[in-house]
Design goal:
The complex is a heterodimer. Chain A is α+β, with helices and mostly antiparallel strands. Chain A has helices at about 5, 10-60, 70-80, 170-210, 230-275, 295-300, 305, 310-315, 320-325, 380-415, 425-455, 470-480, 505-520, 570-575, 580-590; strands at about 90-95, 100-105, 125-130, 135-145, 150-160, 280-285, 290, 340-345, 355-360, 370-380, 465, 490-495, 500-505, 530-535, 540-545, 595-600, 605-610. Classes of the chains: A alpha+beta, B alpha/beta.
Chain lengths: ~625, ~140
Amino acid sequence: MQFTDLLPTTEKTDHLGFTIIVASLLTALTILFSVLHFSRQMEREQLGIDGTRLIHLFAQIAPAGGDLTTVFEKYQLAVPDLAAETAFAYLTVRNLDGQTVRQQVRPGLSVPSFVFIADPSRWYGERVVEQEDAGGKVLEFYGPVLDDGMVIGTVSLAFLAPGYDMSRFGMSGLARLALPAILLGTLIYIILAIELKPLRRISMVLKELSENESIEKPITIQGTRTTHELAKNLGDFLETMRRRIQHLEDLAARKFSTNKVLRYKIARLTSVLDAIPAGIFVMDESLTVIFANQKLASFVNVDAQSVIGQTLTGWCDDEELLAFLSRYKGLHGRLFRADELTYQPAAFPGRTMSVTTAPLHAAENAQAGNGYGTLVILWDVTAEALARAARGEFVAHVSHELKSPLNVILMYSDLLREEEGKSPEFRVEAVNVIHDEVERLTLLINNMLSISKIEMGSISLDRQRVKTLSLLRDIFDSVSRSVKSDGITFSLQLPGELSPIMVDKYLLTIAVTNLLTNAIKYNRPGGRVVLSAEETESQIFVRVKDTGIGIAPEEQAKIFEKFYRSEDDEVRKKSGHGLGLPLAKNIVELHGGTIALYSEPGEGSEFSIVFPKNQGMVRERI
Amino acid sequence: MKRMESTMKEAHLLENKAKKILVADDQPHVLRVLRLVLEKAGYQVDAAANGRIALEWIRQNQPDALITDIFMPEMTGRELCENLQREWPERSFPILVMTSRTERSEKDWTRNIANLEVVEKPVSPRQLVSRMGHLLDTLAH
């Protein structure tokens, strides 16, 4: 540690130094004053003793013959060194009238008058007399001059009252007094500065701490002997605090970023929940909604925000749903399975909703009592419900359609085994009927399978390059061979050339055949059926025209529905499943084409298959 | 033997005293077969192609029994039975319903009609005839 370190560098330390110097000076002065005062007191006492003793001594010296002047000389002889005394002021002999007989006076001083008092108790005494001219005081001792016991005069002996006469001591004496005091002061100052330096450092550190947000460097404070303990503890404390603050700041920073991540994740999760096309909400044991996603509004006709915090009874106006969910009241986290209900909400007529409930468990342990509540999910299952209903209808239709021909076959074959079977006419009839029914059944089953496959999407077109003209001719031939015409004219109108098309030959044959068989079936006796084809810039047409019963406008869309058969008696008379047209339509559409219908009831109908001439359909000749 | 058979046939005919049975079905084959079998058994058979025709016939002629399909145009077998029940609550003749559907919902309505039995298609004609015989016998007693 440098000496310069000790020097005051701040105002406060300046004040301290100044104070110490002043204090030490004052101390020195005080010491001086005390010493002087003490010595004065000592002197005074001594003077008092001396003076009184001398006066009594003088009183014993008898004057010869009552002569006052001679007694003065005797006095002088008795104490020869008296006048030389530094404190000597005057020696005066007076007569009883107060007149001075003989005296010896120090130069510069004046002798005050004296009045003799006859009272013997007052003969001896002392007094302090002010010196007007010279200043200062004189201490006078007086007594009688006795001649055989008779007072013949008075004698006064005066000394200078001791004052603060420093000249007595001399400069060296003063220095000897003052210097130690000053040195002591300086020493004290130095010691204090050394001892207080740690405190200065402490104050600096504290100031820095309060001004800055944080301190990176570690805190150390060196102490001295006396402040060692304090400095060390304070330094340790501050260092601990500093580290703690840094640690907390780190934690805060980490927590801030964790919070950001958490908030992001929560926001993301919420957006996921809002995006799911289902109404989702969570309710606690008291059936109070504690979470709801945005989509809930489309399922229960309430606003998601307004629902949170309300109990079920406040907003759920669908009785069936309310009854179902109310079962979860007060289950207090007891485990329960997921449950489901399908219902028709009153708020959305025509729709079918499904509600699923599931207990929400804390991830850590799935024990009862640690749940988050009950999760309720609302789905719109209208489509599924309709599909199921349609499926059910389809199956019902199918089984009916299958059982009818089987019924007939059974009846006839049963009879064949019996007596009736012996009759040849009956046998012929039976065989024909059975054969027809089997054919009908086979056609039905094939149609159904095809339709099923197409609708399920499990059919894949086996597109081949097909010579359109040949295909149509083949179909025409096979139909005209197999179908009973009943006097109907069956003709083919094809252009000379027709672009080949990329089609599934098997399926397209079915489609066109169905149209043709319909045309023949629903025709009048002597009517006509025409199969034609046409090609334009952008399209290829295949048309089946008949002069049959025709189709009423309100039924023209319905006839393409599965199993639909017209209410018209003429139609109902003929046997049919109602699958031919739907299947043809499916097949055509699978190829990317369309079926159009033009019909006049009583006149006839024309079905047109239209294929666009795009890449998929027509490949140019190489 | 032949003589026996014809005698039996005659006896049968006499027994059945030409009971009139109305058969209603939209399939001509079914009507044909049923007529064949029932006439063989000695019944007098009339046919109707749908429920409406059957109902009109019944209004004009009281049958001794009715055999009907369910799925027919214009009026189904179910509608026919329900109409009969409404118009003639005291109807005495039995009804035999041929159904191809086995769902419970299809049979529920049959419970509300008096004197009605259900048989599932495909049905053997022999069975049909014997069922018919049972029904008419029960009625007779």
